[in-house]
Amino acid sequence: MRYLTTLFLSLFFVNAFAAHHGDVDHETTMHVVHAWIKEPLPGMTTSAAYLMIHNHGADTDRLIGVRTNIAEFNEIHDMKIEDGVMKMRAITNGLEIGPDERVVFKPGGLHIMLFNLTEELVDGTARVVTLEFEKAGKVDVPALVKKVSRQTEHRH
Predict the structure, then answer these.
(1) pLDDT value of residue 13
(2) Which helix (H) or strand (E) holds 118?
(3) What tens digit of pLDDT does each residue of 104-125 get?
(4) In the predicted structure, residue 126 carries a pLDDT above the cut 90
(5) 87-108 in b/e burial notation, b at 16+ Cβ within 10 A?
(6) What does pTM read for this prediction?
(7) Sign, Cα dihedral of 2, 146, 39, 143
(8) Virtual CA dihedral for 32, 113, 92, 16, nearest 10 degrees?
(9) How many angstroms separate the CA atoms of 154 and 63, rounded?
(10) Helix or strand run (H / E) with residue 108
């Protein structure tokens, strides 16, 4: 069964990325690539998702929400160092993305928090993250689960 799931998700990724990079009209002006979810440590009920959004449109749009079926609730967060202390805060008014702007969600910066995980996330599997934009609407994004070592994770 795991083989079939992996095969299906691999074909989904190939299809999604081929359509993204081909000379085709896109359904949305917001293109999302390099999406991945951090495999949580044993016993942890939270994780984070990372990705890159590129606004191919002529107008500014706003990321106003995120949903998954693997967590009870999800939030867009930002991490910053203030007075030598790392602070994380939820972005509640959405995230504005200008025309031809690229926004990178990465460890130590913008990220998507996944709270109260409802299923196990295992390295090498994939899940879907749904981003909701004010103008572009909903965009389903395949995200690969990756195991990250503690040394790689803390790079400040």
Answers:
(1) 52
(2) none
(3) 999 999 999 999 999 999 999 9
(4) yes
(5) eeeeeeeebebeeeeebebebe
(6) 0.79
(7) negative
(8) 20
(9) 27
(10) none
